[in-house]
Amino acid sequence: MAARRISQRRSRTRLRSTPGDPAPPADRGRGPAGVVRADRRVGSPTRADLQDRRGRQDHRGHPGTAARDRHLTRPHLSGGPGLAIRRFAAGAARHRHHRRRRGPARHGRGRVLRVLRPLPLPSGPAVLDRLDDLRALLAGEASFAPVPDDPREQELLTGAFGIGTGIDDDVVLVIATSGSTGTPKGSQHTAATLTASAQATATHLGGAGAWLLALPPHHIAGLQVLLRSLAAGFTPAVLDLAAGFHPDAFADALEALDGPRRYTSLVPTQLRKALDSPRAVAALTGVDALLVGGAATPPALLHKAIDAGIPIVRTYGMSETAGGCVYDGIPLDGVQIEIVDAGPDGVGRVSLSGPMVAQGYRLLPDHPAFAHAGGFRTDDLGRVVDGVLQITGRADEAISTGGLTVVPQVVEAVIADDPAVAECAVVGVADERLGEKVVAVVVPEPGMTVDAHRIQDAVTDRLGRYAAPREVVTVAALPLRGPGKIDRRALRASLWPPASSPATGIG
């Protein structure tokens, strides 16, 4: 694992991962990554907690934290499956050199163009028919934009990304973001950025291996499962999601997964279902790592997974960084984190840079998020504590209530501790007196009743009365955008005017 060099300069905090540096001390506390909780009072385990609990797995015959850490500090040796990753990178470089020597038709300011083609990626075993296209993508030989099965979404992406028109030939992938603005943007990746991501992931996890896909493949998290497996020289296994996520079918697929190291990736809602299945839990304890991302992992869910002996790794990243680039709050090799415009509490805008960062957005050459070469300025708010990144919320989702600012994710972390709450989302709703009022939307645990007053009292005790929800609304499920991300815009549209009965509110 890599160490971090941290410097505080005016309002900027930097966190950099450099290959070959020693691992950080084991007693540094972590909050959940992607999103990582900044407030220790919400019950997030520290890094020492994680290592202690994972270490118990050693006594059950599964490599625990200590065993994995030995892998993480070793140099990655040549030969074996990991060699395939470097061969892909070399192949992409040879491809670019060959194209320069051939002197193909050029357009504009000397740029080489080829056509951006759609790449349908169905959610199921049929996606294996597209592996040759994905291999061509990794080798730098084609340019694709993954599209879902839905014809309406295909039409939307075709117009937004200019599918069917020319694109610089070093851009091999244009993939939709899952941002909160409602307008999809296309992150442009090269063979080099994708290969860098695959290599950094393999190095951090202890070696390249075979992956099981249990996520939609047209989103970056699912696509990277396929690409990591191919880059390592393995054919990925695929779980059929046509009828939804079924834990027993997931267990069957994991048990059949073959490779020197075995990995898979889930979102928190899938993990919750898997933990209710003894077979799925048993299968997950046998993998080398379970990556969980897409949304914050509630502390109670995280504790439950660790106590079950599952080697869980919480990830933070996005389409613009080729997926996860910070694991358990620690940046992958080559990744640098800056906290920009930090306030007195150290919280500011998170900026990421590294070899896996996208080459801007398709058809949006002057987007301010990519104002600095090789960097990406996120809409996430966070801080660095003892060398660990903590994400506290999103700048574009903050609620302004009565002249004060409430970050929804901080309130959600408190509500998630309530034993009757399975899932929750906090949104701002227009209010004549306050401007916006804080409203909590919760999914109850099966057979349990949510106590609105208990939730309001808990938030008031921890964060202050201004942050407490004025209403608590119960629903059967939360709308999602992308894998595991709450669609707050759709949630507000579906509930106001109310479609559910709010519980008692604070006056």
TrEMBL record:
One annotated GO molecular function: o-succinylbenzoate-CoA ligase activity
EC number: 6.2.1.26
Location of region: Disordered: 1-82
Keywords: Ligase
Domain AMP-binding enzyme C-terminal intervals: 411-485
PROSITE patterns: AMP_BINDING
Keyword Ribosomal protein belongs to the record: no
Domain AMP-dependent synthetase/ligase: residue ranges: 169-361
Keyword flag Ligase: yes
Record's compositionally biased regions (Basic and acidic residues): 49-72
Biased composition (Basic residues): 1-15
GO biological process annotation, one example: fatty acid metabolic process
A Pfam family the protein falls into: AMP-binding_C
Record protein name field: O-succinylbenzoate--CoA ligase
